[in-house]
Specification:
heterodimer, A: 135 residues, 3 helical TM bundles of succinate and fumarate reductases, 0% strand, B: 125 residues, mainly alpha, 5 helices, 82% helix
Chain lengths: 135, 125
C-alpha cells in the first residue's frame, strides 16, 4: 500500500512535476507573473481604498497617509504597484488576442510574451520619469 | 440517446450550473479595467505631490468620481474572480478552501464599499 492511500487520504497524493522541474520559458514566466501581479493588485486595491478614505476623512489624516506613500518604502511599493498594473494590463491584452484564436503559434506566443514584458517595464519607467520630472 | 431535458439543453449551463459566466465576467470586467485602469494611472500621476484642496476638488469632480466608482466596481469583481481561481488551484483541503473563498468575497466587498463610500463622501459632503 503506497503512502498516498494512508488515513490522510487525498492530502498525501503525489504531485505531478511542478515549476522546479522545467527550464523557464518566456511565455511561462509571463504567465506566472500575470498571476503574481494579479495577486499583488488584489492587495494593492487596499492602498487605493485607503488613499480614497483618507482623502474623504480630512486634511490631517490625508497628510499622514500621503506621507507614508511619499516615503522611500512607500514609493518602492507604488512603483511595484504601477508595474504590476501595467504588466497585468499587457497580459490582459495578450489574452484578448489569444481569445480571438490569433497568435497561438509558437513564434507569436514568444513575441507577444516578450512584448508584454518589455512594454510594461518601459511604460512604468516612462510614467515615473514623467511624474518625477514634472512633480 | 440524449438524456438531457430540453430545458437543460437550452440553458447551456453544464454540470457546474453557471455555464461560462465566470469566464465571461472576467473578460467583461477586463475590458472595463483596461480603460478605467489607464484613467487611474493618469489621475494618480497628475495628483502626485498635489495639496489636499486640489486632491479633494479633483476627486469631487463628477466625471472623475463616476469613472473612479466604475473602476472600483469593475476591478473588485475582476479581482474577486481571479483570487477565486487562485484559491481553487492551490488549496486542496475542502474546509480551508471554503473559508478562503468566503474571505475572498468579504475582502472584495470591503474594498469596494470603503472606496465607494469615500468617493460619495468627497462628492456630497
Amino acid at each position: 500500500m503506497s503512502d498516498a492511500r494512508t488515513a490522510q487520504g487525498t492530502d498525501n497524493r503525489p504531485l505531478s512535476p511542478h515549476l522546479q522541474i522545467y527550464r523557464p520559458l518566456i511565455n511561462m514566466v509571463m504567465s506566472i507573473l500575470h498571476r503574481m501581479t494579479g495577486a499583488a493588485l488584489y492587495l494593492g486595491s487596499l492602498l487605493l481604498a485607503w488613499w480614497l478614505v483618507a482623502a474623504s476623512i480630512g486634511p490631517e489624516y490625508f497628510a499622514f497617509v500621503n506621507g507614508i506613500f511619499g516615503s522611500l518604502l512607500g514609493k518602492i511599493v507604488l512603483f511595484g504597484f504601477t508595474w504590476s498594473l501595467l504588466h497585468h494590463m499587457m497580459g490582459g491584452i495578450r489574452h484578448f488576442i489569444w481569445d480571438t484564436g490569433r497568435g497561438l503559434d509558437i513564434q507569436s506566443v514568444k513575441t507577444l510574451s516578450k512584448m508584454s514584458g518589455i512594454i510594461s517595464v518601459a511604460a512604468t519607467l516612462l510614467i515615473w520619469g514623467a511624474v518625477l520630472l514634472t512633480g | 440517446m440524449n438524456m438531457r431535458t430540453p430545458l437543460k439543453n437550452v440553458r447551456h449551463l453544464g454540470s457546474a450550473k453557471e455555464g461560462a459566466d465566470h469566464f465571461w465576467m472576467q473578460r467583461v470586467t477586463a475590458v472595463a479595467n483596461l480603460v478605467l485602469g489607464l484613467f487611474l494611472v493618469w489621475l494618480i500621476a497628475s495628483l502626485a505631490g498635489a495639496d489636499y484642496a486640489t486632491v479633494k476638488s479633483t476627486l469631487a469632480n463628477p466625471i472623475v468620481a463616476l469613472l473612479l466608482a466604475m473602476l472600483i466596481v469593475s476591478a473588485t469583481i475582476h479581482m474577486r474572480l481571479g483570487m477565486q481561481v487562485i484559491i481553487e488551484d492551490y488549496i486542496t483541503r475542502e474546509s480551508t478552501k471554503i473559508v478562503l473563498l468566503l474571505l475572498n468575497n468579504f475582502f472584495a466587498i470591503l474594498v469596494a464599499s470603503a472606496s465607494v463610500w469615500a468617493i460619495l463622501k468627497l462628492s456630497f459632503a
